[in-house]
Every structure is written in structure tokens, then in C-alpha cells.
Amino acid sequence: MTYNEAQKHIIHQSLRPDPMRLPELEAVLADINRIILGKERPIRLSVACLLARGHLLIEDLPGVGKTTLAHVLARVLGLDFQRIQFTSDMLPADILGVSIFDRGSGAFHFHPGPIFTQVVLADEINRATPKAQSALLEAMEERQVTAEGETRALPQPFFVIATQNPTHQIGTFPLPESQLDRFLLKIELGYPDAAAERELLAGADRHEMVANLRPRIAPQQLIDLQNKVRAVHASAALIDYVQALAAHTRTTPRWQAGLSPRACLALLAVARAWALLEGRDHVLPEDVQAVLPGVIAHRLRPADDVAHTDSHAVAAALIEAVPLP
Amino acid sequence: MARANRPVSGRQAWWLLATALAASAPLAQQVPLWLSLAATSAFAWRAALTWRQWHLPPRWLLVLLVMAGTVGVFLQYRTIMGRTPGIALLVVFLALKLLELRAARDAVATALLCYFLVLGQFLFTQTIATALLAGLTVLITTAALLAASDDRPQPWQQLRRAALMLAQAMPFMLLLFVLFPRVQGPLWGLPQDRFSAVSGLSDTMAPGTIAQLSQSDAIAFRVRFQGAVPAQSQLYWRGPVMPAFDGRSWRVAQTRGAYPAVPYAGSGTPVDYEVTLEPHGKFWLFALEMPATLPADSALTIDYQPIARQAVRNRLRYTQSAWPAAIAGEKESPAVLRAALALPEAGNPRTRAVGATWRAQHGDDGAAILAAAESLFNQQLLIYTLNPPLLGADMVDEFLFDTKRGFCEHFAAAFVFSLRSAGVPARVVAGYQGGEVNPVDGYLEVRQYDAHAWAEAWVAGRGWVRIDPTAISAPSRINSNLAAAIPAGEGLPFLARAAWLKDLRYRLDAVTNGWNQWVLGYNPQRQRDLLASLGMSAPDWRSMTAMLSVLCGAVMLGLTAWILRNRLRVDPALAAWRRFTRRLAKRGIAWQSWEGPLAFAERAAAQAPLHAAGIREIAMLYAGLRYGPAPQGSDLERLRRRIAAFKP
Fold it and tell me: B491 pLDDT band (50/70/90 cuts)?
């Protein structure tokens, strides 16, 4: 019995009855799922990432709904939204903002860049030069912007969704591993299945649907939920499990490099958010396993990896190798 | 061998210096002063080397110093063999080894040398304090050895690790101690220079010899009675019998004829007891009057005094019994009686005159003369004191008629002299009288200040009769103890008087006695007794070795199991869950070891829809117990009941 086979039994079943889940989050998810069809799991993961105060990296081909996802998330959660299209001639000031001399007042005035918002879609981040990339990544890490010698805090909550084209495409500057590590999760949307695609084609205009969306929760509610995620209990047995997973990646020659402590923290944080989404006050190994592909996708490479390997396969291999402590 | 060549770090050097100090300091009183000073300077040099990070002294200098030290030891003792010279040489080597700590292997060698020096302390003393000190030194040395392989941990961490390792070694040490086949002879005994100066009774008695002993509270021997302890006034511990008198001092008989067994018959119930005799360097053993049986390897002199075949140079334990009312020497040999009548040519005319009048009055009636002598002592109002005045040539006369003050040797000597001058065979018996029962362990402790002398007279038909002239004048000496009989203010060992210290002292003595009996005195006999009490009669060394290996293996297994159990202590909820999954596995629903409980429950429920509710409930309970916050004991009970009731 492999992990994927075991998942097939339960893939369409919720682990707990719906009434146990948090209704406001379920409403948010339902709204998104109505617009982006057939992508329940990546959507759930992206909400978990947001609840865990992390940033999301989506690697996929153009046109599968990355922008729509970011937009819908912002709308449903009642957050401000900005989109930055990364290009190879982009400068840091294009992201952070610039000071311009105002003749009237005779002083410099700071014109905030597009990063001063709550949800940022950084589109095709790997098209920009490393200099522009690092301007964004530093802002993500510190949640503040330092420009012209002045430090300005970014709004709360602050959530970056970066998209990246598959790295083998022409004209890309791949993000180095250390920068990738700043994204809590990396997900792939992929093509919708036939039924979902048919519904999309037959359904109403997505832009219109997005424009008509009403916020489901207030920003303060979102911050409360984020705080709740931190309070989700991770028992000693569960931490043992996270450590066992990390130890396996470090001691087995099967992986190029093991999971870092920061990766373990990320795994635990997303698993907590996933548990909250499931309506639980404690983390189960199932939560860890559910979020594992997104956590390790940009962090762990099998030693024999030559081409792009499906992160789900990598995670399944890891899960099957490590028994629950 | 890269590890062995690693240079010694400063921290390691400090450790080794501390170890060397701890190991050699207790030996300072054994080695000559010049060596102590030299070793101290070497230690100081080592400290300066570490502190200032100077260069190590050149090798030729160390070679010179080693030679100088060896020559010094040789000049001191005229040999480099034997106990003290050997230890002195080791101290030399240790001090100089510290000055050539170049690589890790030197550090290890130094630590091993320190272990050896710890052992060396036991060649000199074997007290509890020595053992405790040695234990401490072993701890420091082990910590230094640990530091020699890894000097990063803090000192207290090293000490804790060392203590842990020693604690783990403890069961093996105890097993080896108890079960390792013992050889006859003391563990630490060396043939030479042992007990060169020990206090105790000697084979002569002159005025003052016993009074001197009264200043010592050292233990002479300990006694454990099989039954009740006899009355204090019956505790006469017979030691050297002294029939020979030269006008000044009494001494034991020169001829050493001996009975191989007790030559007289006893009457009444014998008193059985076991004596643990401190070494005193003489042949005699002390026995309660009159000895009924003889200890192993001993004989009875013609004076009825048990003597060992070899001088008592090590603590000796023997069992014996006594007949308190035996008639000894009813048919005494003429030679012995002649010796018990011998008097010097001249001296003590007044006593001789008194004796002559008794003789004239009572003729051969020894009992009547005895009574007369007792009444004389009674009339004279003699005073029992530790500080008698000095006596001249006619000491018996002067004591009896002039000074009238004396200690037990004066009383015994005067009494025997007066009887002899009346023609009654008599002799002085030295030994100990009384003793104190230690309430802590029930042993009777007889100390040097219990040393005593009394008289023995031969009366036709009654054999040798014990008369204690001291008891006539100072009955409290016999009925209670020395402190009660001596006038207040006279110097006595503190302990003999201070009641308030006694309780503490009793406890200390009981501990010391336990150490002597069970650690130092754990000989083949004790080992056999112990094994017999464990149900093994007369095991030979082969079966003992086999048993030892088996037990050591068992202890090792036990320790390993204990450690593993601690490491793999299973959560009771997890144990219950495993029972549950085993039950489902029989039904063909195998739980994968990586599978979360709820995920497994969904899969199992899909495969066994009839039991879906039960499976889900069990999985929820288990998930809450194992991964939830604040698991409830009642939930665990519920989980166990559900699983017990679960029949797939």
C-alpha cells in the first residue's frame, strides 16, 4: 500500500464532518472554488499558507489561473490587491517606490511602490534580474521597506503570491535555493480536469464573477485566525514525527541535501494552519503529510533528480520511508 | 593514531593537574618531605606552563630529573623495591609526566598513573575515609580521562558524566567484590612493615604499663555474643598470664608448653561469641574466662591462655565459647605450681611478714589465706587512681602500707605477692575487663582503656580461682567501667567520660565495624557463609567464576533493557492503537506504519463499512490522546474499552 493508493480511498472524503470546520473559512474556500474550478487542494493549501503568515510561490504555465487565484483571495478576504509584472529591465524602485522632488513644497516626497498593499501578486518573478528579485524577497522577509534611508512598515496582513514559469523556459533567472526558502509553500495549479474545464468554458465570465465577490471576513478576523494558527497544539509525538522526517532527509543518501531547521518550522507552521482549516485544535500526522509536498517542493531534491520531479511523488516517497514515531 | 597525537589543550592540562594533586596529596604523609616539596614544585611548574603557555621543558632535562628522583628514592630507602619506595617512585613519575604532556596519549598515561596511585593509598590505610577519598579521586580521574578525549564540556558536565559512568560500573563492582573467588589472606596485607607500632598489652607488666593504656580509646577487639551479653562483672577477657616476678615487673612464662585442646571439663551452659581482634602484633588471643573451645589455628598455653600460631598482624575474626564456671587446673603440674610460688630473694619484708603470719595461722588452707588477703586489702582502704605516686624498691610494701594508692597493676601485683609469701600459688593475669555494648549494632566494644590486671590463685580442690583485688577497693571499676571508678578530675580519654558524645561515637564505631566485618574482613570464610546462606554449599572457584560471568551478563542485560525501555517507553494510547491495528490486520486491513490515525480510519471504514462508526470513534479517541492538547485519562480508559469491545 503506497501513500497515493491510501489517499485514493479518502481523497474525496473529508476527514471530519463539515460542521466541525470553521464556517467562515469554509465560506471563503467555497467562494474561491466557485471561480477556480477543480483545484480544491491547491486552494486549500494557499489559504493555509496565508493563515500561517507565509508567502506562496506558484510555479506553473501561464493561463492556468494564478492571477485569478491571487485576485480572488484578496477579494474574498477583503484585502487590497496589487499586481507586479516582473520583467528583465525592472529596478528595485519599481517595486518599493521612489522619492520625487515636489516643486510646490520644495521637498522630496516618497511615492510608495506597488508593494505597499496587502496582497501582492509578483508575476513571473524569475523574469526579473536578481537585484529586483532580492528587493521583493527582503521586503517579504522583514515585512518592511527601506528606501531612501527611511524604513516604512508594510500593511498587515501582508501576503505575497509569486508566480514563476518553469525554469527551463528561456529568459529566466532562477531563484537560488536560499531565496526560495523564503516562500513557505510552493504549489502547482496544473491543468483543470475535463469536467472542471467544461464548466469553466460554459460558465459566466470570471472577471465579472471576481468583481461581484463580497468579502467574507474582515481583515481583523483574518489576523485573529492567524493568531489562532499559532495556538494549534503540536504534541511531542507530532514533533517527533517532524524530526523523524527531517532526520531521514539528512541521513539518507537519497536526497541532495536534508531539510533545514527553517524548513521544519515551515512544515509545522503550515501543518498547524491545515489543522485549523480541518477544524482541529491539534496537528495530526495527516496534516503534516497533506502539506508536505508544498513545503518540500522547492526545498528537497532527490539525489538522482535530473529532470523536474513531481513534488507529490517526492513527498510520497518521503512519507512512506518514515514510520510514525 | 591521529587521536593519540592530538596536542593536550589547556583545559585538559588543568584537569590532569587536579587529578594528580588529588591522587598524590593523601600520600604526602608516606613519602619523604623532599619528595613532597619536589612534587609540589613540579605541579606549580605545570600550572605555570598552562597559565603562561610556556614551552614544555626539553626532554634531556626531564630525563635528568627522572634519574635524580630515582636516585633520591634509592638513597632514602636503600632500595627501590617495596611498598613505600615504589609509591615514592610513582609520585616522581607522575610529577614529571605532567611536564611532558605533549599528546593525548600522555594525558591518558597520566590518568592511568593516577588510578594506580589511588590503589597505592590502600597499601597504607584501609579506613572508610580512605575509601571515600579514593572514590572521589577516581571520580576526578575519570572526568579527566573523559576530558582527554573531549575537552569541550564544562567541568561539572565532565564530573556528571564520570559519576554516571561510575554509577553504571557499580553493580559490576559489587558483583565482583562479592563473588570473585577469594584467596586466603588480607587483600592489602604486605609481609613487611605492618603494624610496627600498635598499642596494646605487652608480655611484661610493671607499675604504669596498664595505666598508660587507659589513655587510649582505640578499639582492642569487638565481640558479638550468640546469646545475651554476660554481666559486666563476668567479662574478664583473659590475655597474657604472668607468673614470673623479678621484684619489679611481671612477665609471661618462658617455656611455651601448650595444650592442643582444652584440658579441663566445663560445667554449665557455654557462652558462645565471636571476636574481631584488632591487630596487635603479639601471639595471644583474648578469651572470656575460662575458654571452653579454641579458635582455629590456635593452642592453649599451660597457663590456659589461647595463643595463635602466628602473630596477629591483621584483623582477625574467630569464634569461641567460654565456661564461666569451669574448674581449671584441678590437678596442676608441680612445675607450674612451683613457678607460681617463686619470689625474689629479698624485698618487701613487711608483706612477707604478713604472709608468714597467715601461713602460721592457716597452714595449708589456701581458701582461708585467700580470705585473709582479701580482708587485708579491705582494711587498708586502698585508693584506685590513675596517678599513683612513684614507688621505690619495695613497691609492694610501699603500696600496701604507705602510699595506698594504685592502679590495677599495683593491686594485682601486691595481691599475688602476698599470697605467694603465704605459700599459696598465685599469678597475675593481664587482659581486658568489661567493654561497652554498642547499641547501634549490638557488638561489645572493648577498648584499650578497658585493659586490666587481676590475680589468680590455686586452691586445692578448686583449681585456679580468679580474685580481682581491684574489685575489693573499687567495685565500680568492675561493675560499670573505668570512668565510674576513677575520681573525678583525673585525666581520662574524653570518650570514657563524655556521655553526650557517646551516641555519635557509637554510630561511627558501628559503621567502622560494619566496614571491617564486611568489606575489609570479607574473606573466603565470609564468602562461603554468604553463598551458603544463598543456597550454594561449598562452591569451588570454577562454579563461582561461572556464576560470576552469568550474573555479570545478567546485570549487563538488565541495564541494557532498562535503558532501552526508557528510550522506547511506549505511550499507552499508542500501545492500545497497535492492539487495534493488529486486530484489523487479521481482517485484512493492514495499517501502514506511516499512516495517520484518521486517514487509516477512513480507509478501514471504506473497507469494513459495517464497523465504520466504531473504527472512526477509536481513531478519533486515539488521535486526541496522542496528538491533542491535555489528553484525559478517562479518554484512555474509553479507548481501551472500545478497542476491547471491537470485534471486526
Answer: low
Please check whether residues B384 and B480 belong to one and the same domain: yes
User: What one-letter code names the amino acid at B119?
Assistant: L
Indicate the pairing of strand A56-59 with strand A185-187.
parallel
Q: Which of the listed residues B101, B127, B158 is the one where a domain comes to its end?
A: B158
Whether residue B11 is found in the same domain as residue B140: yes
Q: Are residues B343 and B478 in the same domain?
A: yes
Model confidence pLDDT, tens digit, residues B530-546:
877 877 766 677 777 88
Give the residue from chain A lying closest to B604, CA to CA: A9
In a domain, residue B68? The reply is yes
Mean pLDDT along residues A56-66: 83
Structural domain includes residue B226: no
Number of domains in chain B: 3
- A10 CB neighbours in chain B (<8 A) are 599, 602-603, 606
B585 has a chain A CB within 8 A of its CB: no
Report if residue B151 sits inside a domain. yes
Q: Cell 486517514 belongs to which residue? A: B599
Q: How is residue B532 written as a grid cell?
A: 551458603
Identify all chain A residues contacting B628, using CB atoms and an 8 Å cutoff. Answer: 233, 235, 281-282
User: How does pLDDT run across B413-464, given as a tens digit for each residue?
Assistant: 999 999 999 888 999 999 999 888 888 888 898 988 888 999 999 988 888 8
Same domain membership, residue B584 and residue B488 = no
Query: Residue B590: which of A1, A289, A319 has the nearest Cβ?
Result: A1
Report the alpha-carbon distance of residue A244 to residue B486 in Å, rounded.
81
List CB contacts (< 8 A) between A238 and chain B: 627
Q: What Rg, from alpha-carbon coordinates, does chain A have?
A: 20
CB atoms under 10 Å from CB of B534, counted, come to 11
Range of the domain at B419: 334-427+453-497
In this prediction the pTM is 0.51
Angstrom distance (rounded) from CA B485 to CA A28: 105
d(CA B410, CA B404): 10
Cis peptide bond prior to B324, omega within 30° of 0: no
For residue B522, what are the contacts with CB-CB under 8 A and spacing of at least 6?
B177, B178, B182
B470 and B380 both lie in a single domain: yes
- Taking CA atoms, A267 is separated from A107, A281, B6, B76, in Å, by 47, 17, 42, 75
Using CB atoms and an 8 Å cut-off, which of residues 614-643 of chain B contact chain A?
Answer: 623-624, 626-629
Per-residue cell: A311: 513534488
Does the pLDDT at position B499 exceed 90? no
The ipTM is 0.86
Q: Is residue B196 part of a domain?
A: no
Query: Residue B490 belongs to a domain with what CATH number?
Result: 3.10.620.30
Do residues B489 and B580 share a domain?
A: no
How far is the C-alpha of B590 from the C-alpha of B461, rounded, in Å?
101
